[in-house]
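job 3f2a | input accepted
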Amino acid sequence: MNNKIYISCFLILSLILFKSCKKDNFIAKEDTQFKTVPYNLEVKPWYPQLKLPTDNPLTEEGVLLGRMLFYDPIISGDSTLSCSGCHRQNLGFGDSRRFSVGITGQVGTRTSMPLFNLMWSNKFFWDGRAKTLKEQILLPIAAHDEMNLNIYDAVQKLKNSPLYLNLIKKAFNTTNVEPIHIQKSIEQFLVTILSFNSPIDKLWGRTDTLNVISASALRGLNIFMTPIESGGADCFHCHSNIPFLGNTSASGVMSNNGLSSVHHDKGFGNITGRIEDEGKFKIPSLRNIAATAPYMHDGRFATLEDVIDFYSTKIKLDSPNLDINILSHGKQLNLTSQQKEDLVEFLKTLTDTEYLNNSKYKTPF
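job 3f2a | predicted structure (365 res):
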């Protein structure tokens, strides 16, 4: 009798183990067959060479996950603020407020930077404190005056979400969520946000320029590109590399453009600890500048006209660590009213309406 019981137990146990092995084999087979769809990032012939992340290939699944996390407030402390709360597409993925407001009601000290063409940059934030896009992604999530959420608490929120567990499985073939999955997916989405279709882009190689930009804007372009000694505004020395105006200089160059005689915000100097870096901030791209007000790191100027007025007569020439391009001529531009108007008209031609309205960048919800 006992032998029969032992034999029965053995058979039942063997059946259980057999089924378990079959299940494990089936799961393993699924894992080995894991496949994502490569994301087709349209790169036009006139783009500069694109520096895609080698450790994070773009996939349809990864970009979708990143897009959802960018627009979902789930990765903030009280689930009320998403990345898009301070980076709005119609504003060039910037913020119309001078200073953005975090979930605790704290007001920041700098204006939000626009988001586009980010893979040409090697420093992020106004003070350049992040060297990579992946690093940049985590900092606003943890910042107390922004999203105010420990990254591991953000991970736990995603682990508790069947929706995101499924999406992470599809994108990265794991249900063991880690901070790197948040970083990589949002990086993938941000990398796809490109802006190279403004009127000024359409100008290159054409002779019928007045059918592309106005006579005033064309005069503004000439003022922009002409040195001071020749009667221009000398803008191109800091906002260089036409036809994409600012992407090379904005890749990581820090500069003091003479906003203040005393550096209350030390900017890049806070990061390096060097006196010679105090008052320096990242040179921004001028693309979509008409859509990204307010201007400067502290949002002190509400309009493009205010900016041009500053460069015309209000630069603090005694500012410590003043940019060499300004220091070398050592005087105000003193632009005429017509020159100011033409410069503003030229800056408006840098607006890429396709980028501002591209459905691929809009909320997926």
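job 3f2a | Residues 134 and 180 are 8 Å apart (CA to CA).
job 3f2a | closed
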